Amino acid sequence: MLWPGVATAILVICAAGIAPMITGLPIPATVRMEREFTKAHNQARKAVGVKPLHWNQNFAQYAESFASHMEVGQPGTCEFGREAPITSYGMNAVVANLETEAPTVVEWWTQGQQYYNANKNSCASEFINTCRAFLQVVWGASEILGCGRVPCGKDGRLFLCLYSPPGNIMGGHPFYP
């Protein structure tokens, strides 16, 4: 039983756009994914001294739509087929199993840091794609992030993040916007 006026107060708080603190309720998957991708990206960016990215829900919906139109190997598989369609955004993509979560995906991309030579501003040629994935995560001029995931094959997912402005600009430096 609620005290008189409590239900009204909760309705007023919700109508004002302030979410009351209710524990024990599950966080919707899209909200959790947003928080996890943003946090993981911004931890990597903080480690190299660049400003954080900001999540944009419309951009995330576009990323998911974009991912759903990528060709991923033969039907029923989760292997990359041909290159992704051309876009004016920066992009990272990876195929993983159903249990893989956002922090792991970003961790995979940031492992490319070991192949980046900051003094020469270049990537080791034999690991250029891995290095470029890292550089896109930490590209200082990028400001907006949106990520999506779509099923592929029987038990896989394609994760795709888009960045704006894009990174990996020829002659540019990742840590200086």
UniProtKB/TrEMBL annotation:
Q: Hey, what's the signal peptide range on this chain? A: none
Q: Which intervals hold domain SCP?
A: 32-171
Q: Name one Pfam family in it.
A: CAP
Superkingdom, natural source: Eukaryota
Q: Which InterPro entries match?
A: CAP_dom, CAP_sf, CRISP-related
For this entry, the protein name equals SCP domain-containing protein
Q: Which organism is it from?
A: Platanthera zijinensis
According to the entry, what is the taxonomic lineage of the organism?
A: Eukaryota, Viridiplantae, Streptophyta, Embryophyta, Tracheophyta
